[in-house]
Write a structure and sequence with these properties.
By secondary structure, the chain is of the alpha/beta class. The protein is globular and about 90 Å long. Helix 2 (12-35) runs parallel beside helix 6, helix 2 runs antiparallel to helix 9 and helix 6 crosses helix 9. The strands form four sheets. Strands 3, 4, 5, 6, 9, 10, 11, 12 and 13 form a nine-stranded mixed β-sheet that branches. Strands 15-16-17-18-19 form a five-stranded antiparallel β-sheet, with helices on one face. Strand 15 and strand 16 (576-580) form a beta hairpin. It starts with a helix and ends in an 8-residue tail after the last helix. The protein is 45% helix and 14% strand. It is built from 22 helices and 19 strands. The protein folds into two domains: 2-225, no CATH class; 256-562, 3-Layer(aba) Sandwich (Alkaline Phosphatase, subunit A).
C-alpha cells in the first residue's frame, strides 16, 4: 500500500523507471558473467562484491539519467501534468526510455563479445563515426530480428507496469515540495561526479570481475570525461628534471649525441657510417594481426600460410609488442616512436600538427611519404594527423569505381588497397624519388567480408577467414610487386596495428599485445630471427637504421639491430605499462602501481622493483610533458 502511495506522487514514474533500470542492469550483468564465467575469479565474496558495487554504479547511472526528467517534472504545472495529452506523451517517453535500456543491453552483449569489456571510449568512437559503425553493424548482425526483439521486450515491460505508471500521472503537488524532492535527487549525481571514477569499481586484479561491477551506460559518459588524462594528476610521478635526466640515459645509444645540454631537450644526432641507402619503404600495417595466428607462435588453424612462408625469407622479430589496443595507437607508435600517453591517442587530439614523425624525417630527406587507407580517413582523425605530419593522404575517396572489386563498411578489400599502393609507388618511381608508403588494411575487421573464391573459408563466417584472406592478399601483392622496377630497392614491412583481442584476466595481459614484425627485402636483407624484446616505438629508428640514414632524433625508440631495447611499452587508454626483465610495471590512474612476474601466459603479482618503477614513470611522464609543452615538434 505504501509503495502505491509513492507511485501516486509526481515522481512515481521515475521510481518505477529506476526499478526497471536495476532489473535490466542485473540481467545484463548476469548474462555477461555467464558468458565469461571461466575467466572470472568467482567465489562467494567476489560474487557479493560484483553485484553490490554493480548496484551502486547502477544507482549512480540512474541518478544521471533522470536529471532532465526531474527538471521537467519540477516545472510542468499540475493542469498540464494531469491532462490526457500529457498522459499519452508520458507513455511515449516511458516506452522510448525502456527501449533505450533494452537496446543498450543488447548492444553491450555484442560489445562484450567483441572486446570483453563494458562500454568504454571505443563506444564513444562508435557514437562519433556513425556511417562506418552503422554500416558495420548492419553487415555483421541480423538487425531486423534484433530490433523486433527489442520492440517486443520494451512493449512487454511497459504492458506489465502500465497500471502502476498510470498512478504517477494522476497526482497533484506543491512547487516547494517538488523543489525539495529535486534537490535531494540532484545531490546524489553531484556527489558522484566529484567522488567516483572508473577505478572505484576495481575490486580485484581480475579485469573481468572489475568490468562486471561497472555499468555500461555510466562508462560511456565517463569516457567522454576521461578522453585525456593529465599524467601528473592521475599517475605516480617524480620531479620533471629527474625524469628527463633518467630519460636521456634510457634513450642514449652508441651512435647518438645530444645536441643540447638542456636536460629537457631530447634531440640528438644519430649517425651511421657510410652513405644513405635510399631504399623505398613499403609499410603494411595489418588490422588486428595477433602473433598467435602464426604457426611460429603456436597457431594451429593454418590461417597465415603465406606469411608463415614469408617469415622464413625475412628478418623476423619474434618478441615484438603493440603499444595499445586500437589502430590509432599503433599508428601513433609507428610514426611518432612515442609511448602511449594516457587518454585518447595523439592521432585524435588537437595540436598534433607538425610533430616529429617518420614521415616528416623521410620527406625532409627527399622521400615521397604517403598514407594509404582502404576506408574514409576522416575516421579517427587519421587524414588530419597524417596530412599534417609529412604524409600525402590517399583514402577511399581517391579510388576510381573501376579500381574497386569489393568493399564493405570499412573500405575497399585488401587486394584493391595494395593495387592502389603499387600505383602510388609507380608514380614516385617515375618522379625519380624514393618513397615511404604507410598502408593500413581493413579486411580483418568485423563484418569479416571479402571477395569470394579467394580462399577456402567463405566470406562473412568469422575472423579466421578474414585473416586468411589478408594473408592471401599480402602474398599476391608481394608476387606482383616483383614485376615493378622499384621492387629490388624496396624494404617491405608487415606489422600489426594491435592484436585481435585485448581481453585478459589481468590489467594488461602481455600475451594480448604480442604481434609480428616482418621485414622482407630479398635483395637487401638476409633472413634471420631477432628475439629482442621491443615494441612499435622501435620501428621507426630500426627502419632508419636499415636506410643507414643520419638524422636528428627525438624518438623514444631504439634501432633494435644496433642496441637492444629490452623493454616494451604497452597500455590501454588508462592503464600504462613497462615490460622489461620479465617484469611488468602497471600504472593506474589513481596514483597506484602494480607489478607482475611474467612467465609464458601467466602473470603473478610480485614486489615492485624501484628502479623499474622509476623507468616506467620516466617514459610516460616525459612523453606527456613533451606533447603538452609542444616540444615534440619536427621543427623547433
Amino acid at each position: 500500500m505504501k509503495f502505491k502511495n509513492i507511485l501516486r506522487s509526481r515522481f512515481g514514474g521515475l521510481i518505477l523507471f529506476g526499478f526497471i533500470f536495476l532489473a535490466i542492469s542485473f540481467l545484463i550483468r548476469t548474462i555477461l558473467l555467464i558468458t565469461d564465467f571461466q575467466n572470472v575469479d568467482l567465489n562467494f565474496i567476489r560474487f557479493i562484491q560484483i553485484y553490490s558495487i554493480g548496484i551502486f554504479y547502477d544507482l549512480v547511472t540512474i541518478s544521471y539519467f533522470i536529471i532532465p526528467f526531474t527538471i521537467y517534472l519540477l516545472f510542468v504545472p499540475d493542469k498540464i501534468f494531469n491532462s490526457k495529452i500529457h498522459r499519452w506523451i508520458s507513455y511515449v517517453f516511458f516506452i522510448v526510455t525502456i527501449g533505450i535500456l533494452v537496446f543498450s543491453g543488447i548492444g553491450e552483449w555484442f560489445f562484450w563479445e567483441e572486446f570483453s569489456v563494458r562500454y568504454n571510449f571505443i563506444a564513444v568512437d562508435y557514437l562519433v563515426y556513425t556511417h562506418e559503425v552503422i554500416s558495420n553493424i548492419r553487415e555483421s548482425y541480423p538487425m531486423p530480428a534484433i530490433i523486433l526483439g527489442m520492440l517486443l521486450v520494451s512493449g512487454g515491460i511497459f504492458a506489465l507496469v502500465k497500471k502502476n505508471f498510470d498512478l504517477s500521472i494522476h497526482s497533484e503537488s506543491r512547487f516547494v515540495k517538488r523543489v525539495i524532492t529535486c534537490v535531494i535527487l540532484w545531490m546524489f549525481p553531484l556527489a558522484a561526479f566529484y567522488s567516483i571514477n572508473k577505478s572505484s569499481a576495481e575490486i580485484t586484479k581480475n579485469t573481468y570481475s572489475n568490468e562486471l561491477a561497472h555499468n555500461g551506460i555510466y562508462q560511456i559518459f565517463a569516457a567522454f570525461r576521461n578522453n585525456e588524462l593529465n599524467y601528473n594528476s592521475f599517475y605516480q610521478s617524480i620531479d620533471d628534471k629527474e625524469a628527463f635526466t633518467n630519460l636521456r640515459k634510457l634513450i642514449k645509444t652508441s651512435n647518438s649525441e645530444f645536441t643540447s645540454e638542456d636536460v629537457f631537450d631530447v634531440s640528438r644526432k644519430i649517425t651511421y657510417p657510410g652513405d644513405d641507402k635510399k631504399y623505398n619503404v613499403m609499410l603494411i600495417t595489418v588490422e588486428s594481426l595477433s602473433g598467435s595466428f602464426f604457426t611460429r607462435f603456436g597457431g594451429k588453424d593454418n590461417i597465415t600460410p603465406n606469411m608463415d612462408t614469408i617469415v622464413q625469407q625475412s628478418l623476423f622479430f619474434t618478441n615484438f609488442y603493440a603499444t595499445g589496443t586500437r589502430t590509432v595507437r599503433g599508428m601513433e607508435a609507428l610514426t611518432l616512436s612515442l609511448p602511449p600517453t594516457p587518454g585518447f591517442s595523439i592521432v585524435k587530439r588537437p595540436k598534433n600538427e607538425g610533430m616529429f614523425t617518420l614521415g616528416n624525417i623521410l620527406t625532409s630527406k627527399g622521400y615521397n611519404s604517403s598514407f594509404i587507407y582502404a576506408g574514409n580517413g576522416y575516421f579517427d582523425n587519421m587524414n588530419y594527423f597524417f596530412g599534417n605530419n609529412g604524409y600525402n593522404v590517399v583514402d577511399r575517396n581517391d579510388f576510381l569505381d573501376s579500381e574497386i572489386t569489393f568493399e564493405n563498411a570499412w573500405g575497399v578489400c585488401d587486394e584493391d588497397l595494395f593495387a592502389k599502393a603499387c600505383q602510388v609507388a609507380d608514380s614516385s618511381y617515375k618522379e625519380g624519388k624514393p618513397f615511404h608508403n604507410f598502408i593500413m588494411t581493413t579486411s580483418n575487421h568485423r563484418p569479416y567480408t571479402y571477395p569470394d573464391s579467394k580462399i577456402d573459408i567463405p566470406s562473412h563466417t568469422g575472423r579466421n577467414g578474414a585473416v586468411k584472406y589478408t594473408d592471401y592478399a599480402i602474398a599476391k601483392f608481394l608476387r606482383e610487386a616483383k614485376d615493378h622496377e622499384w621492387f629490388k630497392n624496396t624494404i617491405f614491412v608487415i606489422v600489426a596495428d594491435h592484436c585481435a583481442s585485448s581481453a585478459g584476466k589481468t590489467s594488461l595481459p602481455v600475451n594480448k599485445y604480442h604481434i609480428p614484425l616482418i621485414i622482407y627485402a630479398p635483395n637487401i636483407i638476409q633472413p634471420s630471427e631477432n628475439n629482442t624484446l621491443s615494441s612499435q616505438i622501435d620501428f621507426a629508428p630500426t627502419i632508419l637504421g636499415l636506410l643507414n640514414m643520419d638524422y636528428t632524433s627525438k624518438f623514444f625508440g631504439k634501432d633494435i639491430l644496433l642496441e637492444k631495447p629490452n623493454r616494451a611499452l604497452i597500455g590501454t587508454y588508462q592503464k600504462i605499462g613497462l615490460l622489461q626483465n620479465d617484469q611488468l610495471i602497471v600504472q593506474l590512474p589513481v596514483k597506484r602501481t602494480e607489478s607482475f612476474k611474467i612467465s609464458g601466459e601467466e602473470q603473478d603479482a610480485e614486489q615492485i622493483n624501484p628502479a623499474e618503477l622509476k623507468d616506467a614513470i620516466t617514459y610516460y611522464q616525459t612523453a606527456s610533458y613533451l606533447f603538452h609543452h609542444e616540444k615534440y615538434s619536427f621543427k623547433d
